[in-house]
Amino acid sequence: MRITLKVWRQDGPTSPGAFETYDVPGVSPDMSFLEMLDVVNDRLTLDGKRPIVFEHDCREGICGSCGMMINGVPHGPEKGTATCQLHMRKFHDGDQIVVEPWRAAAFPVIRDVAVDRSAFDRIIEAGGYISTPTGAAPDANLTLIPKPVADAAMDAAACIGCGACVAACPNSAAQLFTSAKLAHLNLLPQGQAERWARTEAMVETMEEFFGSCTNHGECREACPKEISIDFIAMMNRDYVKSKRKNRKLLSQIR
Amino acid sequence: MATTTPARGSNTSARGLVRPTFKQPRKRLPYPIGLYQTAVGRKWVMGVTGIMMMGFVLVHMIGNLHMYQGPAGYNEYAEALRTLGGHLIPREGVLWALRLGLLSAVVLHIHSAATLTIMNRKSRPQGYQSPRDYSAANFASRTMRATGIIVLLFIIFHLLDLTWGVFLGDDYIKGDVYNNVNRSLSSAPVAIVYMLANVALAVHLFHGAWSMFQSLGWNSPQFNQARRVFATAFAGLILVGNLSFPIMNLAGVVSQDTRTTPCVAEGGEETNICLGVNE
Prior knowledge:
The complex is a heterodimer of chains A (254) and B (279). Chain A is an alpha+beta fold and 254 residues long.
């Protein structure tokens, strides 16, 4: 396969970027998208040029590092996969492939197509955890969880925090990410104690960085884990409730 | 999360490259007003005000079907609106309460939409430099702002046209609803404006009537499929009903009333009472 690669090149967060076009012959259809980029980078290095910076880690679709916009779609044309799980056989010989970083105020470009997704960490820090005593491990099955509840929580927990939802959203909203992280804990018994404080804190931290949801549903289409926007509805419901509940809980201190 | 209210405005948000785009309000107003200080809260307000306006649009459309009963029925319906609440409440009292409610809904809906749009623009200062390929966002959801503005402009036009009679001049007779509507809609340019605006309204409702369920958090696997059906049916119903009025007036099915006493009082006697003329 021979493809034309049009990649966003940018030296740093404040420098202006531009697309650069590379002719890439000898691409095997069995290569993953990242392996194709590795080949391009090898050739660039041999030519004495700066290789394309992209983030990657596990290359098996579970770490969420490797997000990039491929032909205007986050993670490329294949549904339900991260960039690393996308293979060149999804493209045709002679195709032009356009690669661009996620675009959002909260995701500044570090270099080329690598962006800083720390804003997600700020949301998690605000409440994406449970406070629990670190003693001996509790007995297995001490806390019983109905199967449908466990399944729903697991669906939400599948979120790898890649940022495709924000990238896909016309408003750069992080609703799908935040709602998945909230639902993962808020559905389970272990998450109940801090449910309302968590919901309020995480939503309000999210709103410091990201836009607002207009229910397009683009995020669900882009999500490599195909997380449902039903979780966004749950978050909206819980947030409005949390405003009332937290007030009530405060009044019980005295 | 030691206390139930999370610490806000802490400088922990800004570390490294990433800076918050939006500042949290220094002081949170008490519930439920404080909800309006947040984006999720504003979307909730848009959902609630959307329901209020949907209720109006539906009742307005059904009420206008009285047009097909002829002048007596239509003018009586208009009079019935003014005397809602019977003798217990001053004339037009309930009507004005409803109008004020609607007006506040319109103001809140537009204010939320405008501020959230500004927020959304700020959250992506540099847009995508290559063409985006949208897969879920439909025409309706992508054009909510445009259709919303069209509907707002139409509401202003509609009020000027039939509530204040600015365009009809001497032909406008306060209280003679049937003839006013007919005179206005018999003109092709006006009828076309009405038709276009109602298409925009239907497109707005197609997304809005579904989107409100998400914004309000009304979600359940038991009725999630029905939400899309409801929004489509609601938008379709409003479109068909509202389009029929300009079409029927233009086609002459609804034609001018030439009687001098266009209303029917109790007992079947024809009077002028409905026009506010007590003779």
